[in-house]
Amino acid sequence: MANLLPDWTQFTLKEQIGQMIVVRASGYLFDHQIRYPVWEVSNPILHHWLDTLNLGGVILLGGSAGELLLRTQQLQEWSQTPLFIAADIEEGVGQRFSGATWFPPPMALGEIAKNDLDLGISYAYEMGKVTAQEALSIGINWILTPVVDVNNNPDNPVINIRSFGDSPNIVSPLVTAFIEGAKSYPALTTAKHFPGHGDTVSDSHLNLPIINHDNERLESLELMPFKAAIEANVDSVMTAHLLINAWDNENPATLSKAILTGKLREKLGFEGLIVTDALVMGGVANFADAEEVAVKAVEAGADVLLMPDNPEKAINAVYDAVESGRLTRERIEASVNRIWQAKQKIFNQEKPDLSIYQLSQPTARQTVKNILKYSLKTNNKTIEKAAYNTPKRNLIVVDDLLNADFLDRQMPGVIIPKYLGYDLQLVDQNTLDNVLEDNRSTLLQIFLRGNPFRGSAGFNENSKKFYHNLLKKSTVHGLIIYGSPYILDWFKTQINDELSWVFAYGQMAESQAIACQILFNLSASELGNISQSLGDVFI
Predict the structure, then answer these.
(1) How many Å apart are CA 255 and CA 269, to the nearest integer?
(2) Ordered structural domains, the chain, with CATH
(3) How far apart are CA 151 and CA 128, in angstroms?
(4) Of 20, 148, 358, 538, which is most buried, counting CB atoms within 10 Å of its CB?
């Protein structure tokens, strides 16, 4: 087939440096839809950047899967050089772009693997395969996953259930299986966040976490899954904004030559792309000015600078560093050569026959349901149907009412209790006190998990006090927790053996349906009747 890539050696120095930059952009087509204007520039500015700076790629967030297909085609047309188009789709394409398959978080597979490693591996393989297939179907060619961190700190606010688990012996084979599955299609994979973000109590989106483990511990635990990912030929490794005192007590890993070149390149033998985590994150943005951060990342060994504050300034800073002799042309050329090798895989291989109509196929949706079922936890106590006739409420608590895409009036967590006579009460963690005086029999559903920018792994002390007081009233007769098993661990210290509870890793519709079905001991036909009578399609 024809070579779609130009000869990069003919690029000017600034054009070569431009290939090392990936900028953030909205996945929506129109400017009035932009949700994060601090990071996502308008279409005229983005078009100008792609047309004049020879940028390497774009990372997208927002929009439906159908809209994203149009958006990625638009962006490729704006650029003279074929683009990396990346996305953080750690839980499948549907996690970010509605309409595609949304998998449970990786820790659900780790839960399965604890009891049946082979089954966990098979699901991880399918997850990788479906994610790559659906990504390419809508124009995404760089999957910023899998998360390779070992989350062995329950208080970790940012990795949490994004990790496959708390043991490298579980994480490593699942990471390998995911990468092998994704290899079924020509999309790039990414192991992150090197050298391991699992044992931190702060969020690198906000500040710089510090890890004080010695070299022996880092080698035997944090690095094991990265070694497995490299052996599985992962295409890229994303850096972590962490201070690893045993290896470099001055520079964050993203800006450390001792870590990126010394450890990752030379010791572990990684030959693929090294991409920074977003350079606008507090973990490095607070360390030095944006131009210095860009130069130091390249000095350290990074090939791709993800989300610099301003791409033009980043290019000029790296260019000036070459002109002054701080960086060499050979250093830039080595990165661009690796970028070209990665783009060869994307653009110069025979394309599989893919269509947007292949998204969210029945086999993929069944895999989602199987993962949810086999990772679910319960104390096997159900709510008796006799209790349905009493006044009662469905108290749903979310972390943030303005960021709860997994809930609407037709979601199972709402409609199943409604059908059974529960009045909906929807609150977030900032409005809990307003519902404490309600003495109706209560179904309590909590949607809570670790996420970037939250700053904590779960609820705060005020919310713990609320739940403690609520449970003391003995009005809660059913509990469902969606998201973090660490939240369940706390509740187990507060509840008696008679309270019926269910825990599910996922927060999507399928997870809500399965959890409610188990808690209320509904047969498949009963669940089907509820779905049919309310016009829902979650079965």
Answers:
(1) 19
(2) 22-358 (3.20.20.300), 376-533 (3.40.50.10870)
(3) 20
(4) 148
